[in-house]
Structure formats: C-alpha cells, structure tokens
Amino acid sequence: MKRPPTSLAVRLTVSIGAVIILVLLSFGWMVERSINHHFIQQDIDELNAVRQALEHTLALLPNDNHPEAIRTTFANVIVGHYNAQYRISTSTGTVLYATSGSDLEKFAKATPPVMQINSDTVSIWKDNGRTFRGVVLQITTNNPAITNNFTLAIATEINFHLHYLESFQHYLRMITVIACLVAILATWLVVYQGHAPIRRISHEIEKINSEQLHIRLKAEAVPAELTELAKSFNKMLDRLEGVFKRLSDFSGDIAHELRTPITNLRTQTEVALSQARSSGQYQEILYSNLEEYNRMAKMISDMLFLAQADNKLLKPELVSIDFQAEVQTLFDYFEVLAEERGVNLELTGEHASVTGDRLMLRRALSNLLSNAIRYTPHGKTITVRLIKNTATDSLKIYVQNPGAVIPEKHLPYLFERFYRTDSSRQRAGEGAGLGLAITKSIIEAHGGSIAVSSNEEMTSFEISLPINAAPGTAQSNGSDI
Amino acid sequence: MKLLVVEDEVKTGDYLRQGLAEAGFIVDLARTGLDGHHLALTGSYDLIILDVMLPDVNGWRIIRALRDAKPSTPVLFLTARDSIEDRVKGLELGADDYLVKPFAFAEFLARVRTLLRRGSAPAQNDQLQVANLTLDLPRRRAQRDNQRINLTNKEFALLELLVRRQGEVLPRSLIASQVWDMNFDSDTNVIDVAIRRLRAKIDDNYEPKLIHTVRGMGYMLDVDEAEPVPEQ
C-alpha cells in the first residue's frame, strides 16, 4: 500500500531544521577550532620567549661560575613565566638545569628534538594529572666558555586552557541545542502560519454544497501560489454548476412531461369508472390510454438513450458507411411524407464514406430530416449537401431548408432537451422535443459536432463528422467534466 | 404452438401469458429462474421467452444451458437495460432475438411470430392472394378485382409484408424496419402516410376493405371486417 505523502509542515520543518542544525554545528566547530588555535599560538609564543631567554643566558654564561650562581641565573630565566618549565642538558647528557615540579626528563627522552617551535613541532604531554604543551629543542650557542650543543626541553602547563576550552565547548553545545530547538519551533510556527490560507480556502470549500454551487473562491484574496488552485477550482465549480443546473432542469422537464399524460390518463380513467358504459366506450378509452402509454414509453426510451450519452455509454459500432447511399435510403423513407407535404428532397455533393454506427447516424439524420420536412413550406426544397474536407479529414453534412427564420435567441438552446422555440406549441403528435438532443449526442459520440444557423434564405444544420471515427474519440468528447 | 415464458414480474408474466394465449398459443409461465431453467431443459417448446434479469438463476445461464441441450429451440430475450452489452451478450450466447422493456405487445407478438415462422420454410409462391387482391411477386404487380393497380416499389413491399402476415397486427416500428430498414422508433408519421396512400390505391374503390388500423398498435391486413383486437 502506498503511504500518503508526508505533511508539508513536517517536510519543511525537517529540512529547514536540518539546515539550521548544520549551520550552527559548523559555526560552533569553527569557533572552537579558532580558539584552540589561538591557545596553541599563545603557548608557542610562551615557549619561544623562554627559549630566547635561555639562549641569551647561555650566550652570556661565564665559564667559571659558581654552581649556585649558575642555578640562580637559570632560575631567573623563567621568572614571569609561571606555567613554564624547562630542562637543559648537554649533548653528553649532563643536566645543566631543570626546573622543579615536573619530570621533563621522560618527555625529553621520548620526544625527538627539533630546531623550530611551531604548531607542527609542539606536542602534548601528560604528567601527574597535569597537561603540558612542550617541545624538545636542539640548540647551539656561540659562547666559547661552554659546550656548544644542548638539548632543551621546554613545556608550559595548559590545564587552564583545556579547562577553559572544555567549558566553552559545553556552553557552545548547550547554546546550539537550544538555538536549534528554538529555530525548529519557529520554523514550524511560520510554516503553520503560512498554511493558514489553505485552511481558509478549505473552510470556504467546505461550505459549498449542492445548493450553493454559485459560491466562488476569491482568487485575489489568496497568496500568489494558490491563485491557480483557486482559479481552477472556480472553473470546476462553473462546470459543476452548469451540469447540475442542466440535470435539475432535466428532471424538472421529465416531471413536467410525464405529469401531463399521467394526469390525462388518471382523469380519463376516473371519469370512465364514474358510471357504467358500453363495451365500445370502454374500448375507446383503452385505445386512448394506449396512445398515451406509447408516447410515454417512447419518451422514456429516448431519455434513457440521452442518459447513456451523458454517461459516455454510447459506444458506436463502427462500420464503413457510404453517406450518399445512406441519405438516399432516408430519402426513400421520407419520400411519402415529403410528397404529402409538397416538399422536394435533394441530395448534392460528393461520394463520401465515413466510419460510424449506421443505426445511430441514420437516426440522427432522420431527426434532422423530419424536422426539416415539418418546417419547410409547400413547394420548396430540402437540400442535403455532403462536402468532404480532406484538410481536417472530416465530412460536412448540411441539412438545409427554406422556411421561417428561427430567432437568434433560440439557436444556442435548440439542441437542449425539451427545448421548444414556441412554448405554446404543445405536443402536436410530434416528439417530446428530444430529437435534436439525441442527434447532437449521437454526433458527439462519433467525435463530431453540430451547429445550426438560420436566416431569411434558409435554416441550415451543419454536421461535421470525422471520416475515421476512432473508437477512442467517441469517448473523449463532450462538454461535461 | 407451445411457448415458455420465464418472467419474474407478476403482472408482466400474467399479461404476456394472457396475450399469447388469446393469440392462439399454449403458454407455460415460469415465475422464477429455477423453474424456468427446469422447464426449459425438460419441456418441449417451440419458443422460449426469457427475461434475463431474474432474481435467482441468471437468464444468461438459462440461455447457455439451453443452447447446450437444445440448440434449435428459438429464444427471445427481454431486457430492461437498454445497452449494447446486453444485446450483444444475449445474441452471442445464442439467443435469436431480443426486446427492450418497455415494449409494445403488438411488437412482441410480431417478433414471436417471426421467430416461429423462421423454422418452417416460407411457401415460395409466385402469387399471393387475399380475397380479390392478387400479388404477382416476380413482376411486382398488384391486382384487385382483376384490375391492375400501379404501386411504387415501396408500396408493393409494404403490401407484400401486410399480405404475407395477414391477420397479424404489425406495429409501425416493425413496418419501418421491414420495408425501409429503419430500425429505430421514429417520431414521424411516415408509416401512417404510406398506409393512407396504399389504402387509397387498393382499398378505397374496392370491397371488402383489407387494411385495418389497430389503434395504438399498428396496422393489419385481413378479410375480416370485424374489430380485429381479439384475434385468434
């Protein structure tokens, strides 16, 4: 199972916290290092000072001095250097002088002598719980009175420095930990605060239910990052509101359309039963009911068809259709009706094959033709025009008829269910106003489109049908969500 | 002719049985899928009418079992789901025809008769005759009272259909489908106009009247002038 993504606040807090900890740690490390470095340099200076004093003393040391006097002279060398100690011996191992306290002899023996004192040559030495930084030097003197080569071990006690460093480190760590905690807490607060607009939007969205689909998020009242989200959410609401409205209009229409025949049936039956009648009369009533039932059944099956189209369940069975022959078949069917009304049927245009569902397309065109026959004045001609468009690989089918102009305001709604241009014109034996809606959904299930225009000259329905309706295109169309 | 109707809806089952019985068939009605399954496999029927949406034994299962046991018995299935899937599935399983509920009884009866006729080879006469109406099929000519009547191709096809199925009520949708190959319910009154014109040619000036309108159901050609509703 896939885990849900980690919360944004946690992610931000963890990453920002990690960066802060890293920065503080490296800062602390650098401070510590530079202080340590500073102490080493201080020790080296101390050691150098002692060395110079000693070299000076050695250079001036008289040859025949009294040992006591020599001792005093050597002891004086480190006056003022409280922490310093040294031991000086000749190359033969005779100790000229050693300060009391620490045993520098072991140190002198264990450490290789060097010429210079610097941070590379000094070393740490522990003795009796005390820590020293020291160095063993090979020095020469040009005093002719004494031997030329000496081994000099100098050390300075650094316990104080170490102690200081230790407590500094301790404080530094405590400060780092506290700073990290404060920083992480602050980050989390900021992130949480930063998400406040999201919570606000979500709160607003929560208030939207089916009765309040008109509510829109204020895109200008959210941070820039969320504007896009708010806008797309608003667009989704637009679409939902549209579909919802159509849906509720549709159910309203259904209720209305079914109410009339049911009222008729009920009244008729009640009246019929109110007194005894002859069997002929009963028969008459049953016939009349039957007609009403048929009309209702037809409407229900039409609405089922449209509901399937809405749910993208219309799956055209694709075969190759010769459209000229198809229109001719329809003309054959409508011939008697057209003759009866004194209307001519004419087919022009080129031969064109289209892949599509024969039954559905026939039904779609039949609705347009029966419509056209209904509204064409006596003696006029209905024209079906087929025009192939090789550029877009589509076939244009025009069904055109002269007749009364359909007012501009009705045109956009002509394909809507139950829409009637003339609201007073009730069912005059014709369909329930679903024909054009069915035509439209069939054409759209084929990945095509349909439009209508109307002027003094003619009313023209224009279908654009892809010549090769791939099964996929039939699924991916439609204006719904 | 003995038919089996498998239908769980009480009212629908009753009316189908009554309607078929009054049309002259012997009808067994099974109200559950289990009964239907049993009767279909053990009984001997000329046609089985099956609602595929049964609560217990699925209608498809009955068709499948029946096809294994008795491949020649025609099956007409009824479905309320107006979907291609059902249609295709039923026909693939070996059913012979289907009807989508709600259907008109006249349409139902016409389909039943078509299926029953399918088994027996149609009499290939060159001539069809009803009363004093004669159809010359090879030459596509019609005569009434030995007078030749000029009919268009479609008018002749329409008349031939009515004559061949004399005494049966033919719903408009069936006429549209058989004569013009329009296999959907049309809102138009094309069939009414076509019948009116045909009547004007073959009936108006002759006796007896042959083409009858059955209100709310369709048209019928018969010699009997009485109201044709309770047909035998």
State the gist of this model.
The complex is a heterodimer of chains A (481) and B (232). Chain A is built from 11 helices and 12 strands.
Which features characterize this protein?
heterodimer, A: 481 residues, alpha+beta, Beta-Lactamase, Helix Hairpins, Heat Shock Protein 90, five-stranded mixed beta sheet, 53% helix, rod-shaped, disordered C terminus, B: 232 residues, alpha/beta, Rossmann fold, 2 domains, four-stranded antiparallel beta sheet, 8 helices, 12 strands
Strand element count of chain A: 12
Q: Overall 3D geometry of chain B? A: elongated
Order of strands across the main sheet of chain B: 2-1-3-4-5
Strand content of chain B: 15-25%
**What proportion of the residues of chain A form beta strands (DSSP E)?**
15-25%
Sheet/helix structural class of chain B? alpha/beta
Low-confidence stretches of chain B: 227-232
CATH superfamily membership of the largest domain in chain A, which one?
PAS domain
Instruction: Please summarize the sheet with the most strands of chain B.
Output: 5 strands, parallel
The number of helical segments of chain B is 8
Mean pLDDT of chain B: 85
* CATH arch. level architecture of the largest domain in chain A: 2-Layer Sandwich
Tell me the CATH topology of the largest domain in chain B. Rossmann fold
Q: Which bin fits the share of residues in helices of chain A?
A: 40-55%
* Cα separation of the termini of chain A: 29 Å
Oligomer state equals heterodimer
Report on the architecture of this protein:
By secondary structure, chain A is α+β, with helices and mostly antiparallel strands. Chain A has 3 domains: 8-168, Beta-Lactamase (2-Layer Sandwich), CATH 3.30.450.20; 219-310, Helix Hairpins (Orthogonal Bundle); 319-475, Histidine kinase-like ATPase, C-terminal domain (Heat Shock Protein 90, 2-Layer Sandwich). Chain A has 11 helices and 12 strands. Chain A has helices at 8-60, 67-77, 104-110, 159-194, 196-207, 224-273, 279-310, 323-341, 358-375, 435-445, 471-475, and strands at residues 84-90, 95-98, 123-127, 130-140, 149-157, 319-322, 344-349, 353-356, 381-389, 394-401, 449-454, 459-466. In chain A, strands 2-1-5-4-3 form a 5-stranded antiparallel beta sheet, with helices on both faces. Chain B has 232 residues and is α/β, with parallel strands linked by helices. Chain B has helices spanning 10-22, 33-42, 59-69, 84-92, 105-119, 153-164, 172-180, 190-202; strands at 2-6, 26-30, 47-51, 75-79, 97-100, 127-130, 133-136, 141-144, 147-149, 170-171, 211-214, 218-221. The model of chain B is unreliable at 227-232 (pLDDT under 50). The A-B interface holds A 283, 287, 290-291, 293-294, 297-298, 300-301, 304-305, 308, 313, 315, 317, 329, 332-337, 340, 359, 362-363, 366-367, 370, 373, 429-431, 435 and B 82-84, 100, 102, 104, 154, 176, 180-190, 193-194, 197, 215-217, 227, 229.
